[in-house]
Design brief:
Blueprint (H helix, E strand, L loop, with lengths): L10 H7 L15 E6 L14 H10 L4 E3 L6 E3 L2 E6 L5 E6 L13 H12 L17 H5 L9 E5 L2 E5 L7 H4 L10 H7 L13 E7 L3 E6 L13 E6 L3 H9 L5 E2 L5 H9 L7 E5 L2 E7 L9 H10 L2 H7 L4 E3 L22 H10 L6 E8 L4 H13 L3 E8 L1 H8 L7 E3 L5 E2 L31 H11 L7 H16 L4 E12 L4 E2 L19 E2 L1
Protein name: Peptide ABC transporter substrate-binding protein
Family: Belongs to the bacterial solute-binding protein 5 family.
InterPro entries: Peptide/Ni-bd (IPR030678), SBP_5 (IPR039424), SBP_5_dom (IPR000914)
């Protein structure tokens, strides 16, 4: 099977939606140093563990996997693999590796490293939130249950050949091999640093980490032995953390910052949009994104379906969209409109405060109740949480807001009885890969409802999991329309259980300094979220 036959079904849809700003046509230049700012520090750079939008693109610049995507697109391409073959039964992939690829420590990457890396992520002791992505591999269940540490389906054929056997044909597997969780790591470095590997990452990527001063900065330097000729272009990237977004933008106006990593807060959006100096420097892109409020289905009284439905009916989504200056559209289901499986006929829960009050009364909470709403502390997320708080107060629910750093919100969501409600803003789901299955397994499927996972609703519907598995087994090209319809049914049926309040599908808007070059697509990259650092450059 050729790679072209596996191209994403979503390329044309994304291409028609993604980039409002013009493409900068110029030849890339080598050299230069840039500064990127973030408000919060980075929790980890371990590819098996890191799972938020802030560290996602950083990890992609430090590590590689067997597969990746063409820069700025959703089209799969070969990465550490120089070729692959698929068996006639559609269950075994045999990858040929590029010879001569070196880790940052100087050692050549081999097939044994691929096997080790996949087994490490699958091992429950690693506590990877992405382990469930590897469940299609033969032997995964035994590893996940602690019976063994070896994936039976992953075999080292020789130093440059590895085969991976699946339990059934799987339409998403090559996408999975392009995830950060499938990044190849050197065993000796993981064993050397143990739990601190995330602070001392060693990969094969375009950049290597040379300095990390906690709470202040991280410094990436160009990997002079990177296997892709000509990239990266930039010599060093300094990520300054602890920078308030508004201060970062002021510094960008003074040419002291090159990319404001947290984007443009709504409070500054109109100023930048209407300022001629920045119109050519702003980049707007639609995302495979849904922002949602999770309702922990295991914590009373949210374990009551009528309560969860009432909360869905209480939230005024149009008002929340206005808070971010209309840079989104209200959502009524988990899937974003650009994703196959999205049901344009589905109406969801209508905004109906009086109906919500009646449902609460039926559930035995006519006088309401008190709960907690967790939110990331970067503007505008606290203001969005306050709007939800007011909406809930209108039906008698007192939601006490806990505004925390991103990493702390993520940690709370991953503990089953800690966070009754989590507003996902700033951490909201952007597809790891462009397929509807990715909006299920990690955030709504049973595999994600585990300690440290991202299914903060702790929702597990085994019947819908099975239906999703059936859809993922439909790998043939002539099955894709039926597959999309089946996935659509999964999501609308899940909404009958109301584990979420889908709020909006947001556009990402960022701004860079006039020094920066590269296609606008790279600054709102749909896969290297938010920025593809490997291909941008300094003019």
């Amino acid at each position: 099977m050729t790679l072209k036959t596996r191209k994403s079904l979503f390329t044309s849809a994304i291409a028609s939606l993604m980039f409002a700003a013009s493409v900068q046509a110029a030849e890339p230049k080598n050299g230069g140093d840039i500064i990127v700012t973030y408000q919060n520090d980075v929790a980890t750079l371990d590819p098996a563990i890191g799972y938020d939008w802030q560290n996602w693109s950083m990890i992609k610049s430090l590590f590689d996997g067997l597969m990746d995507y063409d820069p700025g697109t959703t089209e799969l391409r070969l990465d550490l693999a120089e070729s692959y073959k698929l068996s006639e039964d559609g269950k075994t992939y045999t990858f040929k590796l590029r010879p001569g690829v070196k880790f940052h420590n100087g050692r050549e990457m081999k097939a044994a490293d691929v096997k080790y890396s996949l087994e490490r992520t699958s091992n429950p002791n690693t506590k990877s939130p992405g382990a469930g992505f590897f469940s299609p591999i033969v032997g995964y269940d035994a590893v996940s249950q602690g019976e063994t540490t070896e994936l039976e389906g992953v075999k080292v054929v020789d130093d440059y050949t590895v085969s991976i056997e699946l339990t059934a044909p799987n339409a998403t597997f090559l996408h999975v091999m392009g995830l950060n969780f499938a990044s190849i790591v050197p065993k000796e470095e993981v064993e050397k640093y143990g739990e601190d590997f995330g602070k001392n990452p060693v990969g094969t990527g375009a950049y290597e980490l040379t300095d990390w001063t906690l709470g202040q900065k991280l410094v990436f330097e160009k990997n002079p032995e990177y296997f892709r000729s000509g990239v990266p272009y930039i010599d060093t990237i300094t990520f300054e953390v602890g920078q308030e977004p508004l201060v970062a933008l002021q510094r960008l106006e003074r040419d002291e910052v090159d990319i404001a990593g947290d984007g443009i807060p709504p409070a500054k959006y109109l100023q930048f949009k209407n300022d001629p100096r920045f119109q050519d420097l702003m980049v707007t892109g639609d995302q495979l994104h849904t922002g949602y409020l999770t309702l922990n289905v295991t914590m009373p009284p949210l374990d009551n379906l009528k309560v969860r439905k009432a909360i869905n009916m209480a939230i005024n989504k149009d008002r929340i969209v206005r808070i971010i200056n209309g840079r989104a559209t209200p959502a009524n289901q988990p899937l974003p409109p650009a994703m196959p499986g999205y049901d344009s006929d589905y109406e969801g829960y209508k905004f109906d405060p009086e109906g919500a009050k009646a449902l609460l009364a039926e559930a035995g909470f006519a006088d309401g109740f008190e709960t907690e709403l967790f939110v990331m502390n970067t503007d505008p997320q606290p203001r969005i949480a306050q709007a939800m708080q007011q909406d809930l107060a209108n039906i008698g629910i007192t939601a006490n807001i806990k505004s925390l750093a991103q990493a702390n919100v993520i940690a709370a969501g991953g503990v089953q009885d800690q966070a009754p409600m989590v507003w996902s803003g700033g951490m909201a789901w952007i597809a790891d890969f462009p397929d509807p299955s990715n909006f299920w397994g990690p955030i709504l499927g049973c595999d994600g409802a585990v300690p440290g996972g991202w299914n903060w609703a702790w929702y597990c519907n085994e019947e819908l999991d099975a239906k999703g598995a059936k859809a993922d087994a439909m790998a043939a090209a002539d099955q894709q329309e039926a597959r999309s319809e089946l996935w659509g049914e999964v999501f609308t049926q899940a909404m009958a259980d109301a584990p979420w309040v889908p709020i909006f599908n947001e556009q990402r808007v960022t701004v860079h300094s006039k020094r920066m070059g590269g296609e606008d697509a790279l600054y709102v990259d749909p896969v290297h979220v938010p920025v593809n650092y490997d291909y941008i450059w300094v003019k």
